[in-house]
Amino acid sequence: MTTARITLSGLAERLDAQWATPHTVYGWFATVDHKKIGIRYLVTAFVFLLLGGIEAALMRAQLARPNGHLLSPEAYDQLFTMHGTTMIFWYASPILSGFGNYLVPLLIGSRDMAFPRLNAFSYWSFVLSGLFVYASFLAGAAPHGGWFAYVPYTGPSYSPGLNMDFYALALLFLTISTTVGAINFVVTIFTMRAPGMSLSRMPLMMWSTLTTSVATIFALPALTAALILLELDRRFGFRFFDATGGGTPLLWQHLFWVFGHPWVYIIILPATGMASMMFPTFCRRPIVGHTYIALATVSTGLFGFGVWAHHMFATGMPLLSTTFFSAASMAVSVPSGMQVFAWLATIWAARRHVFSTTFLFLLGFIVLFVIGGVSGVMTASVPYDWQVTDSYFVVAHLHYVLVGINLFPVIAAFYYWLPKMTGRLLDERLGRWNFWVMFIGANLTFFPMHFVGVRGMPRRIYTYPAGMGWDSMNMLESVGAAVFAIGVLLFLINVLWSRRAGAIAGDNPWGASSLEWSTTSPPPEYNFEIIPVVRSREPLWDAQPPATDAAVAEYRVLDDGRRTLGTTVLDGQPQEVLRMPGDSLWPLAIALTLAAMFTALLFASLAGILVTGALVLLCAGGWLWPQPEELVP
Amino acid sequence: MIAAMLRPLAVFQLRAYYDRAPSTMSAASHDAQRLATLGVAMTVVATLIFLLVVGIIGFGLWRRRNSPDALDSPADVRTPVDVSENWWILGGGLAMPVVVLAGVFLMTLSTMRAYRPAPAGAPEILVIGHQWWWEVRYPNDTVITANELHLPVGRAVHLELRSADVIHSFWAPNLEGKTDVIPGQQNEMVLRADSAGVYRAECAEYCGRQHANMALSIVAEAPADYQRWLSSTKAVAAAPANDTARAGLAVFMSHSCAFCHSIRGTPATGSFGPDLTHLGSRSTLAGGALPNTVGYLAGWISNADRLKPGTKMPASPMDGASLQAVVRYLEGLK
């Protein structure tokens, strides 16, 4: 299906001249194009997924049989810590930032993010913080305290090496990247939507991106505070978490989970938002319950802040408090139920089903979502949680949530949007294999974990004795992990194959309704020659397509320099013409100097910290120095 | 000699030391039974919800099985199939979960009602988590042991849980859910076994390198047997019975052993490691990691790190005769 695009003579050339990044080394490092940054996010986060996957595979090799001795206990501890830390912080959230970066401006009909340079900085500091934490392997001191790093084990007395400093400093570095990224999304979505795109017409993925971005801004400070207190304990002899010095270990748990539980929603809601974009396309109808999904998304983000203590039911909390958090944790699953039933209704009342690979992954996503959801309700029941918490049951639950509600929609999204990014479709036949192998592998790996957990196997043990009733299930899980890995490999093969030989996608290969499909695949640097006008929730399904209206198009050409349109928050009425900044090396420079500063912090070199800190400030000055174009009124 | 005594690690049959596999589904107490029932009930509800969702997907796909593959025009898409948002989203997505969750919450509350403080006069037992073993002390510190906890069957005991270092968690799946063991905080739990037997408790909170090998045997026995065990464990260590054992005690005192370990009735009063006064009567060594046999004990003393990498127990290199003597002495401490 193609959508007619109008072209004004000479416009594309003028916009090209203003927006194109030179194909030079300078251009590669200086670009602020949200699409390039988005793709870099996706590639980098996927590399972290593969690293985390390799770590998981090594653990499954160790646990395939009782009394395994492939890995030393210390190596195992580092692997499970890095597996969790990588997947949660350097894969699950950044992969969604990648889709967000690429798609948000395209979905709302804008030419870039609100703060393109901040966007570039966000990417560079994400990748550098990842390199920083992985450098710990080279130093032979990878973090080993678990991804939630409970004190006092991670404090100075019990983990004296650099291991947990790598963890704390790398995460502090990453929180800077994540925070500025979240602010960028909020401002972009609030102020840069195409004319006519009122909040009520905004695509559902914008609701989920908005919700998670706001939640990020409020959740991350708790983590930042916890990490700073940890470093003060570790480096400066403070005793925040040291019971022998009047501190309390539970403070860490409260701070960590006040951040950590909203974070769970932060790494699944954008994926559910993407699912809500994809279901209508393959069911050939608008989504059922658009408003309810938007409400459910926002309320999940909100209620997510009130349930953190369900991670702490066994810490000896008063029973009355546990019942409160138990009720809240069950209640938070209600909006998820509304979302699931909205998708079910969309499938039920479809005009027809288009069985693309994307659609298969979406169906698999619902199935895994429901399993992860109901096991979550079981752990929300306080006394049952006393049995299953910190057992493999919880490992099963959290992997159903993260694989089911993050990875499956993400793979679906790759099959759906990669053609927009590269101009080429992925292979559908290989895609089917990809889906079934991954789906079977995921279930083989994670479903038996429920059983070994209920049968008393604690998590985070590097080995286990034979005959406890865990042997055959563990073997099954390890076989499943191998199948799962083959599934991921099939996906990679498909992506690489499609880059060379995939069928040409065209503007709108799926006949979808949202604005990104109205431009070319891949889109030009400026996204849209003419800023589209939106008249409904499904602009490309309108009788009057959004960019063929020559009369209104006239004042939205915006071809005198890098320009895009600013609109009002509620109604999306044109408000002002925004001047967008050009390419710059300063974002990279500030990220590099920050990396140097965190390295100086790691080695506790006062002189190093002062020098690198001064360099960071200098770079900030360079960044803020007025550019010739900005001086024009 | 030591090499000959050590069998390959994979041959451990620790399972033989427990009467049951440590499963929440193999309940040996009323509490564990209630929790298992709650788990089964919730699993049934969960399975029904799962089947409902899969059924809707399956039937929904089946209804449209004959539709052609070709994409239809935007004009077609603009006239959607009618569907009741109220029924689906407010009925299926809101009302149904609320009803189901209310039911689950009531089951939760009724299970929690069964948790009551220990009855007056229940034995008070102090359990202290160490990296990576359990210290167990009975009232007034008259009975001190490690990695084993005896209790009278059918009677509630009151556990005080403390940590000597980092956070641990006390979990005996056959008997009761977990309670964390947190430094600077005294947690409590009531433990009761309703059928006699030896059960495995394990550390359930990651606590460092040997978190995997931090188990405790819970021996639930007839009250008379329990009393007998208490009084025999209360006694100071037996004097060495022969020359070898006497030499062993001398080796124990002259090496660094006594800095960390106590043997009541001897000058050894260390408190960093487990109390060894009745080591010979325990079934396992090293936090439940090894069977308590002459061979493993010798291997443990001469190079503990090889058997349990990262353990705080240092290697004590000594000649064969000394090793044999000290092993004979310790194994004689019934």
Can you walk through the features of this model?
- The complex is a heterodimer of chains A (633) and B (334).
- Chain A has 633 residues and is mainly alpha-helical.
- Chain A has helices at 11-19, 25-30, 34-63, 73-107, 116-138, 163-191, 204-236, 249-266, 269-283, 290-303, 319-331, 333-348, 357-380, 382-388, 392-422, 428-454, 471-501, 550-553, 586-602, 606-624, 628-631, and strands at residues 563-567, 574-579.
- In chain A, strands 1-2 form a two-stranded antiparallel ribbon.
- In chain A, helix 6 runs antiparallel to helix 19 (586-602) and helix 9 runs parallel beside helix 12 (333-348).
- Chain A is globular.
- Chain B is an alpha+beta fold and 334 residues long.
- Chain B is built from nine helices and twelve strands.
- Chains A and B meet through helix 4, helix 11, helix 12, helix 13 and helix 14 of A and helix 2, helix 3, helix 4, strand 7 and strand 9 of B.
Any idea what the CATH superfamily of the domain at 1-62 and 74-101 and 108-250 and 527-579 in chain A is called? Cytochrome c oxidase-like, subunit I domain
| Lateral arrangement of strands in the main beta sheet of chain A | 1-2
Q: Report the strand count of chain B.
A: 12
Integer average pLDDT of chain B: 90
Beta strands of chain A, count:
2
The CATH first-level class of the largest domain in chain B comes to Mainly Beta
- Classify the fold: give the CATH topology of the largest domain in chain B: Immunoglobulin-like
CATH architecture of the domain at 1-62 and 74-101 and 108-250 and 527-579 in chain A: Up-down Bundle
Structural class of chain A: mainly alpha
Looking across the biggest beta sheet of chain B, what order are the strands in? 3-2-1-5-8
